[in-house]
Design goal:
29% helix, globular, alpha/beta, 14 strands, Transcription Regulator spoIIAA
Length: 307
């Protein structure tokens, strides 16, 4: 695959093929150029948020190029809109090049509903690469108390409650994200009393977290970096070292890392440095929608039990 140089016609063919394969028309990544397996197209991702496509660019392209892409994709069955997001520099800019977006845009994943937004230059409200992670959480947490750190719009919480979790505490500094999380739980008709939300700086809230425990499972899915408020190597370690307090001595952790500058080997060593007695239950990545030339650098998820 690496020896072949790909172009836009190849992107269209792959997107069309994946659309046909995903008969459910759920949210999916249709083309993952960022993984480097398609030579010459590592600046481009295409995500399906039915009925629209979100095309993410990591290099600038002119308006004519975008028009040609838009015209191609609007010929696909079931596609009613195309949005480009430029991530060349901050702030990100979204450009709707075809169709109209509903202000109440709801997408499905594994038969669960999520509220998203493609109109603004930000993340849409859910990350497609964590599809396997959410499915896994749904399968393991029946009857558990779950702590969901860096919860964003609470997608892990949705999966946990759907999987029969007794309760979930969602923590994130962004109160707007947590508000979207409430909407997501309402969309899925979940028991409101089973879900709680704290808009706090996690690193300054260890006491509050401990008082709400003990938890059976901690989900840690931080951003690789968040300015001065979160430093991956410094602050992730702090959370891991305090995890025993949150678990009441023992329990399970789903440790996630989405950084292309840190591989699985580094992550395993990092866990060794910050945890004492634990065993790994499962390691996995984002699944087949996200082919990576260097799989060790893709999304990393490690499920472990702490003693």
């Amino acid at each position: 695959m690496a020896d072949k140089v790909y172009d836009i016609s190849n992107v269209y063919q792959i997107v069309e093929k994946n659309l046909l394969n995903y008969s459910s028309k759920e949210m999916r990544r249709l083309f993952h150029g960022r993984g480097g397996t398609y030579k010459n197209l590592d600046f481009l991702n295409v995500d399906l948020f039915p009925p629209a496509l979100l095309i993410t660019l990591y290099e600038e392209r002119d308006s004519q190029w975008k028009k040609e892409m838009t015209d191609l994709f609007m010929e696909l069955e079931g596609i009613d809109g195309v949005v480009f997001q430029s991530r060349v520099k901050a702030p990100w800019i979204n450009e709707i090049t075809a169709g109209e977006l509903s202000p109440d845009h709801i997408v499905m994943e594994n038969q669960l509903k999520y509220s998203i937004s493609l109109a603004k230059g930000e993340n849409p409200g859910i990350f497609p690469d964590m599809r396997e992670g959410r499915s896994y959480v749904k399968s393991i947490c029946h009857g558990w108390k779950v702590l969901n750190l860096f919860s964003y719009t609470c997608a892990f919480s949705i999966a946990a409650i759907e999987g029969g979790a007794e309760s979930v505490l969602n923590m994130d500094m962004n109160s707007n994200s947590l508000s979207r999380g409430r909407i997501n739980h309402e969309l899925n008709h979940h028991d409101k009393s089973a879900v709680s939300y704290l808009s706090h700086n996690i690193l300054k809230s260890f006491g509050k977290i401990s008082k709400r425990g003990p938890f059976d499972l901690i989900i840690i899915d931080p951003p690789p970096s968040q300015g001065s408020s979160f430093n991956l190597e410094r602050d992730y370690g702090k959370i891991l070292r305090r995890s025993g307090d949150f678990l009441g001595g023992e329990g399970e952790i789903l440790a996630c890392l989405n950084s292309h500058t840190h591989d699985f080997k580094w992550f395993r060593s990092f866990l060794d440095e910050n945890l004492t007695n634990y065993t790994v239950l499962k390691e996995f990545g984002p699944g087949e929608d996200f082919p990576e030339e260097k799989s060790e650098l893709g999304l990393k998820i490690i499920h472990l039990k702490v003693f």
